[in-house]
């Protein structure tokens, strides 16, 4: 039994986490062993299989209610599963849990028809989507979108503009596109639309190869004509995309924090194991204080980040969900994970730098965690505002 301080917050869902870990060990680790060494991103059909299998076992999108196809888990349980996926070190484990290509909280505000047609297949792991929010001149500042949505007399909408850095656009079944409705009028504002990826006027432009193999895409909206019912949430959804989205951002940030903590725990374990075995100058390198400094600092920071994340998740279960808490947890966990992976790589010397070593991959992979779901600077802006500053 673990005696780490954070274990106090892990006991409640121990059985669930054990059963997820057993699924990863028995089913995903053998599949991951077959992955080609040169690719960081598992093939789309394998990711689809993992998603579907995990949904059947009740893990994928587990916090969605049973009537939508989920398992009705408390949020803190989902956070622990994301932690376990990162800690496993299995490259397929993250795809067993819903991420940015899975059920969108925005669709929880969808009309009955949108819930049936779009949300439920996402919860079952049968479909994926992408979110097209960022634009070439509007990233952190998502309130200044220039993509427009114009309502015609017939009630149809026409979307124009460019979206950038969109994950999963190459494989998604549909996009949730946020555009400025009623530009130049008092009505409207940022509005979310469902756009099928095979829409003839929606074009994938540039593809960006990222640090960790995941591809991001530009989406070009070339007068994309949509029916009136494409607005997420119907009439009530017009101008409400960012308001509704902001409500769900906290949970997304806590999930990212949990993934980071899991990755950091895994990287630390690799560092400790190596330091106990590797010898230099006639000693195990773990005996040297400079090496201990890397690993002990990491241990302290991982434990603190984990406690913070798990406590925030527990508060969400209790109905306390503040942007400030989620920002604190995401900021702490993502920056910690970057440092911990770096330190464990240092402990490994050249061995960790070689392509194919898990730390070489994690060093590139973990960096995006300080950008997605709001950069570290933006998390600080949120906390500063909550402190009455600025
Ligand atoms: C791996 C990955 C996946 C992504 N997936 C998606 C996706 O699926 N859909 C999507 O729409 N977007 C996606 N993005 C884009 C992501 O949301 C944006 O990159 C992010 O919001 C930052 O915007 P930006 O890159 O335009 O940077 P900018 O907003 O231009 O920021 C540049 C720098 O200025 C800082 N900064 C900006 N404003 C402030 C401020 N007020 N105070 C202090 N510092 C500030 C930022 O922190 C950053 O350091 C993804 C990005 C990555 C890396």
TrEMBL record:
Required co-factors: FAD
> What residue stretches are annotated with the Acyl-CoA dehydrogenase/oxidase N-terminal domain?
11-126
The answer to whether UniProt assigns keyword Flavoprotein to this entry is yes
Q: Which SUPFAM superfamilies match?
A: Acyl-CoA dehydrogenase C-terminal domain-like (SSF47203), Acyl-CoA dehydrogenase NM domain-like (SSF56645)
Q: Which residues form the Acyl-CoA oxidase/dehydrogenase middle domain?
A: 130-224
Name all Acyl-CoA dehydrogenase/oxidase C-terminal domain ranges: 248-387
Q: What is this protein called?
A: Alkylation response protein AidB-like acyl-CoA dehydrogenase
Q: What is the lineage of its organism?
A: Bacteria, Bacillati, Actinomycetota, Actinomycetes, Kitasatosporales
């Amino acid at each position: 039994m673990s005696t780490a301080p954070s274990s106090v917050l892990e006991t409640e869902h121990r059985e669930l986490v054990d059963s997820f870990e057993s699924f990863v060990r028995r089913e995903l680790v053998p599949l991951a062993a077959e992955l080609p060494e040169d690719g960081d991103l598992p093939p789309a059909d394998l990711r689809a299989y993992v998603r579907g299998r995990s949904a059947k076992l009740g893990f994928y999108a587990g916090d969605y209610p049973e009537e939508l196809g989920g398992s009705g888990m408390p949020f803190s349980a989902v956070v622990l599963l994301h932690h376990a996926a990162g800690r496993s070190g299995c490259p397929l484990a993250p795809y067993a849990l819903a991420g940015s290509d899975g059920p969108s909280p925005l669709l929880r505000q969808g009309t009955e028809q949108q819930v049936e047609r779009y949300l439920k297949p996402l919860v079952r792991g049968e479909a994926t989507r992408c979110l097209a929010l960022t634009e070439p001149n509007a990233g952190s500042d998502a309130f200044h979108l220039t993509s427009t949505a114009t309502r015609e007399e017939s009630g149809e909408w026409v979307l124009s503009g460019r979206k950038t850095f969109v994950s999963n656009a190459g494989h998604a079944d549909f996009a949730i596109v946020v555009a400025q409705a009623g530009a130049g009028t008092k009505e409207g504002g940022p509005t979310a639309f469902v756009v099928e990826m095979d829409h003839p006027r929606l074009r994938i432009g540039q593809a960006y190869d990222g640090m960790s193999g995941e591809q991001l895409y530009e989406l070009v909206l070339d007068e994309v004509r949509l029916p009136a019912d494409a607005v997420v949430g119907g009439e009530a959804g017009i101008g409400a995309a960012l308001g509704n989205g902001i409500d769900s951002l906290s949970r997304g940030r806590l999930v990212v924090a949990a993934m980071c903590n899991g990755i950091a725990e895994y990287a630390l374990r690799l560092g400790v194991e190596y330091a106990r075995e590797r010898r230099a100058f006639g000693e195990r390198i773990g005996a040297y204080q400079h090496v201990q400094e890397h690993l002990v600092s990491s241990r302290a920071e991982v434990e603190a980040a984990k406690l913070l994340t798990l406590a925030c998740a527990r508060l969400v279960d209790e109905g306390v969900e503040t942007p400030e808490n989620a920002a604190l947890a995401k900021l702490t966990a993502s920056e910690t994970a970057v440092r911990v992976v770096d330190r464990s790589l240092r402990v490994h010397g050249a061995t960790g730098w070689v392509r194919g070593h898990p730390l070489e991959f994690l060093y590139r992979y973990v960096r995006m965690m300080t950008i997605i779901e709001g950069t570290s600077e933006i998390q600080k802006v949120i906390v500063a505002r909550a402190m009455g500053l600025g």
